[in-house]
Amino acid sequence: MEIITAVRGFKDIIPPETDKWRHIEETAYRVFGAFGFREIRVPLLEKTELFCRGIGETTDIVEKEMYTFFDRGEESLTLRPEATASVIRAYLEHTIHAAETVTRLFTIGPMFRRERPQKGRYRQFHQIDAEILGPDDPRTDAELILMLIHFLDKLGLAKLNLEINSLGCAKCRPAFREAIVSFLGGRVEELCGDCQRRLGTNPLRVFDCKVDKCGEIISRAPRLMDFICQDCRDHFEKVQGCLSLFEVPYRLNAKMVRGLDYYTRTTFEVTTEFLGAQNAVVGGGRYDHLVRDLGGPDIPGIGFAIGFERLASLIPDRDQDVSRGPLLFIAALGEKAGERAFMLCNRLRMKGIHVEMDYAGRSLKSQMKRADRLKCAYALILGEREIEENSALLRNMHESAQEEVCLDDLEEIIKKLAR
Length: 419
Ligand code: AMP
Known about the structure:
It is a single chain. 38% of the residues lie in helices and 21% in strands. By secondary structure, the protein is an alpha+beta fold. The strands form three sheets. It has an eight-stranded mixed beta sheet. It has a five-stranded mixed beta sheet with strand order 13-12-14-15-16, with helices on both faces. The protein has a three-stranded antiparallel beta sheet with strand order 2-4-3. The chain has helices at 17-34, 48-55, 60-65, 84-93, 96-99, 138-154, 173-185, 193-201, 212-219, 230-245, 290-293, 308-314, 335-350, 364-373, 384-388, 410-418, and strands at residues 38-39, 45-47, 67-71, 75-79, 103-112, 124-133, 161-166, 251-252, 264-271, 280-286, 301-307, 328-332, 355-357, 378-382, 391-396, 401-406. Helix 1 runs antiparallel to helix 6. The protein folds into two domains: 17-172 and 228-319, Bira Bifunctional Protein, Domain 2 (BirA Bifunctional Protein, domain 2, 2-Layer Sandwich), CATH 3.30.930; 328-418, Rossmann fold, CATH 3.40.50. It starts with 16 loop residues before the first helix and ends with a helix. The structure holds adenosine monophosphate. Adenosine monophosphate is lined by residues 82, 113, 115, 121-122, 125, 127, 259, 280-283, 305, 307, 309-310. The site of adenosine monophosphate has 16 residues, from strand 6, strand 10, strand 11 and helix 12.
């Protein structure tokens, strides 16, 4: 019979990769905690409307990539394609905004987008998502970016490229939109089919187009930076000033518009040359109207999402195996010794010590081979004679030295070794 495989674009994370994932998560908990972030866990399934309203009806995600279905014909539900909309829904539903003026939340988990799978692009992928709700002070933008760079640094990833841009606000964006429509309007014939449609629905999305010809046209288009109002300009300058205080290297990228409609003012991406076509590791930005658009009060926010798979693939293999081998392997010979070993093995495990043994009754040689393969620090050799003499041989696997120990003292000896 054929085995059943995972769904295309859905991927297992298996050991030792999971060790690396836990290392990344623990680093995030530590770093984010020091910056005042607390964890939130939100459902994977939401009402479809949340993403239509949040991300924007005419974005690629909402138009083409969502896993949406009618739950027994009653209600349209969607597997979340990103976390920000869900975090804000929870923030409003639990009136967290009424209890505090600044809220810093993070969440780690799977997202779902029906994109064409390829290296670094999956249909279920994971994100580390951080959001600050409340302040619109530029220092908040800088603090969030600083935390991100510090986090990447802690993971040994200092050489990534940070690009920032300002997308302006509701006041200054319409003039830019008009300029883009009139610029692209004169070149409709040269644009791809998708962009011709985008011109009528959401012209800023043309900036995201991967078609070469469209990219070439866009490179000559008016720049948003030339249209932003004085307030937005001042805000952006202050963000940059704060980043410079901490000597965070960055590059201005006037063409970065990000793939979601909710962004305003500061936006940023972290990219790397090491990932080929899927070079974006982190995307983020300010969203000053999203809370209001989702039915809440006028509360500004800013956040980022780190692509977990892409981040993990950048961490060198030598960091991969953060877990060590077992402390002890118990090699038992004969039935009586086997029983004693079983007791001892599980008693030590309940004390939090990683111990392994073999149930197959193999020869001493093959049991010691297994202890070696598992990278055990010590092996305990327990035979019929040893049981009769109430003793066992404890072997230091690294130094190849062994000593006889009394079985009554064994638990204490092993506990000492574990310290
Ligand atoms: P976005 O939510 O689109 O701004 O994406 C934020 C980050 O999530 C990106 O920079 C990627 O690292 C990651 N990401 C987005 N889509 C995928 C995908 N289909 N597969 C793997 N990672 C993804």
